[in-house]
Design brief:
Layout (H helix, E strand, L loop, with lengths): L1 E2 L9 H10 L5 E2 L13 E8 L2 E2 L2 E2 L2 H15 L6 E2 L13 E3 L2 E11 L2 E9 L4 H16 L19 H5 L5 H10 L1
Helix pairs in contact: 1-3, 2-5
């Protein structure tokens, strides 16, 4: 489980981390994005690196997100991929990638003096329902009965799916990686 910086604000973070440990889940904190995601053998993490300036201007935040969305859409032309927050997914954001209102991926970015890195979490195959249940239960343990003033998501495991399930055929991370690299 890759935790976001915002996860440090969970009022019962220690209990939530104990829950992950008890489920034999390794975890660490990343320096981009705000909330937890699952990273297992059915998930592809993919990054694009850009210089700050393209032609004679800076690459905007939205343009960087759109470039990642374009790569994924070109890699999977048989799917109609949309962007927009899928509220009840884990790590919801305005540039969630979805098909039929079910999230398949999330995008974050990090900027520094050298440039911009746009990072994608893409759910390729395996049990996305179990991933959703794991993160839902992580937040349940982390919040307990404390008011959720930090806007942690109310996760519905059915709000997310995999590319393999959408394509109705087996798909591996390696095949997905090759599709992205071909673009």
């Amino acid at each position: 489980v890759i935790l976001g910086l915002k996860d440090q604000r969970l009022p019962h973070l220690k209990d939530a981390l104990t829950f992950l440990h008890d489920r034999q889940q390794h975890y660490f904190m990343r320096n981009s994005g705000g909330l937890a995601v699952v990273s297992d053998s059915g998930v592809l993490n993919f990054s694009l690196f850009f210089p700050w300036h393209l032609e004679d201007r800076q690459l905007t935040i939205d343009e960087a997100y759109q470039r990642m969305e374009e790569v994924v859409a070109k890699a999977f032309p048989e799917l109609t991929i949309e962007t927009g927050e899928i509220t009840h997914s884990y790590c919801p954001g305005s540039f969630d990638l979805s098909v039929n209102k079910q999230k398949i991926g999330g995008i974050s970015q990090r900027r520094n003096a050298a440039g911009v890195v746009v990072m994608l979490y893409l759910s390729v195959c395996d049990d996305q329902m179990a991933r959703g249940e794991l993160i839902r239960d992580f937040y349940t343990r982390g919040l307990q009965d404390v008011d959720n003033k930090w806007h942690f998501p109310d996760i519905w495991p059915t709000a997310m799916t995999t590319l393999a399930d959408l394509l109705h055929q087996p798909l591996t991370v390696e095949q997905t990686k090759q599709r992205l690299l071909n673009v």
